[in-house]
Design goal:
Elements lengths: L7 E8 L7 E7 L6 E11 L1 H8 L5 E3 L3 E9 L11 E5 L15 E4 L5 E4 L8 E5 L3 E3 L12 H16 L7 E4 L5 H10 L5 E5 L2 H9 L4 E4 L5 H8 L19 E4 L4 H9 L13 E4 L11 H7 L2 E4 L7 H13 L5 H4 E6 L3 H9 L6 E5 L1
Parallel strand pairs: 4-8, 11-12, 11-14, 12-13, 14-15, 15-16, 17-18
Antiparallel strand pairs: 1-2, 1-4, 3-5, 3-9, 3-18, 5-6, 6-10, 7-8
Helix pairs in contact: 2-3, 2-8
The chain binds dephospho coenzyme A and zinc ion.
Dephospho coenzyme A binds next to helix 1, helix 2 and strand 12.
Length: 370
């Protein structure tokens, strides 16, 4: 445990401002002040949205990573919900802004050349970090230190989308586009609430097999079938139900687009149930991935099918409530985080690990262990 005067040396992954590999720099982290929490990390996850950050233009050097498990070393004077020695999960989603007006601080790290590397929320690709207390969730002292590193993003975003953003209920039909680190957790949450069927859509048969283990009832490879027809065939509406212009009612109640490319959005949109006048509305498309290009929206279809399009950031989760819930799923054997973690790397392999994710070679989620 650091005492109040100690300076902690941290190894931090830094993404240069210009294109180039990530480098690991050793920096000094001062004492946490105000709402800051100093944390020693056990493990952190590697999320696809970091690849987006690596490809997009940036205005400063960046510090990356937004899910981890760690131990509190020291806290600033305003921190009341955790103390040194506590085991914690780090997330990028504020733990509960419904109960405070204080916005969490942007994270920054002073680098050795005098420049500042930034993150809009937290940075966890580092063996130590300083985070705003809004991103720090206390967990039980015996919480495993490795696989729980992905609860702060992969689980929160995927399962949150199903529970919070969509509010899927027992018996609802669900399809998930993209069953990677995030999508698998959408599948698992859909199973937890009793959705049926749960259709996994991906371009990789091995990922589909894994989705089956997480609760998918049907597996659709988008490369070798007409996804829209396949999903609609699997989810016919009630006998004889016809919608506008005699179009048979069919399609899922909820389609989760965890890829968010124009083509996946369009497929998810069209595979969602069409409405039947005032008898029932159309289904809901939930955009979970961050679109890297604008979608084309068939606006007339939107109108006549009476579908709903919902966006969600981080599953619209409330980490303070949802992280304990998701950890309880893990502890009860309902969420197989051990199967979700399909690769473990050391910190110095960070560039190789991001390349593996880019190349589609990570089946579930990879973690860095410190
Ligand atoms: N059709 C179906 N599946 C596809 C297609 C396609 N055309 N292309 C790729 N896929 C599959 C891949 O085979 C893979 O299984 C999956 O999509 C993507 O999985 P991962 O593991 O590479 O990616 P994730 O799960 O880590 O992240 C996916 C997101 C889309 C959520 C992420 O990239 C993103 O956009 N995140 C931002 C959203 C958000 O809320 N961010 C907050 C923190 S992530
Ligand atoms: Zn993420």
């Amino acid at each position: 445990m650091a005492d109040a005067q100690e300076v902690v040396e941290a190894r931090v992954a830094v993404l240069p401002k210009e294109h180039g590999p990530i480098r690991i720099e050793t920096v000094e982290l001062g004492n946490p002040t105000g709402h800051e929490v100093l944390i020693r990390e056990f493990a952190t996850g590697i999320c696809h949205s970091q690849l987006h950050q690596m490809h997009n233009p940036r205005f400063s050097e960046l510090v990356l990573g937004h899910e981890a498990t760690g131990e509190v070393l020291a806290v600033g004077g305003e921190v009341t919900h955790v103390k040194p020695g506590d085991r914690v999960v780090l997330t990028f989603q504020p733990r509960d802004l419904r109960t405070t007006d204080r916005m969490p601080k942007v994270a920054s790290v002073e680098l050795n050349d005098g420049s500042t590397a930034m993150s809009p929320n937290i940075y966890t690709w580092s063996d130590h970090t300083i985070a705003d207390d809004q991103y720090v969730i206390p967990v039980a002292p015996d919480t495993p230190t490795d696989v729980t590193a992905v609860v702060g993003c992969a689980v929160l975003t995927g399962a949150g989308a199903v529970l919070r953003a969509a509010g899927v209920k027992t018996g609802n039909s669900v399809a998930v586009w993209g069953v990677g680190g995030v999508g698998l957790n959408a599948v698992a949450a859909a199973r937890m609430v009793g959705a049926d069927p749960i259709i996994a859509v991906d371009v990789d048969d091995m990922k589909l097999e894994l989705a089956n283990r997480f609760g998918a009832t049907h597996l659709v490879n988008a490369m070798d079938s007409n996804v829209v027809e396949t999903v609609r065939d699997l989810t016919p509406g009630a006998q004889g139900g016809l919608g506008f212009r005699g179009m048979p009612v069919a399609g899922v109640d909820f389609a989760f687009d965890v890829v968010a490319r124009p083509e996946t959005f369009l497929d998810a949109f069209r595979a969602t149930r069409n409405s039947r006048f005032a008898v029932h509305s159309g289904g809901t498309i939930v955009v979970v991935g961050v679109p890297q290009a604008p979608f084309e929206l068939p606006s007339q279809e939107l109108l006549v099918t009476e579908r709903t399009i919902v966006g969600t950031l981080g599953g619209t989760a409330v980490p303070e409530e949802d992280i304990p819930l998701f950890l309880s799923w893990y502890q009860n054997g309902d969420l197989d985080l051990d199967a979700l973690i399909t690769s473990r790397v050391g910190f110095d392999e960070i560039n190789e690990a991001t390349k593996m994710l880019e190349d589609g070679k990570v089946l579930g989620r990879s973690i860095i262990e410190f």
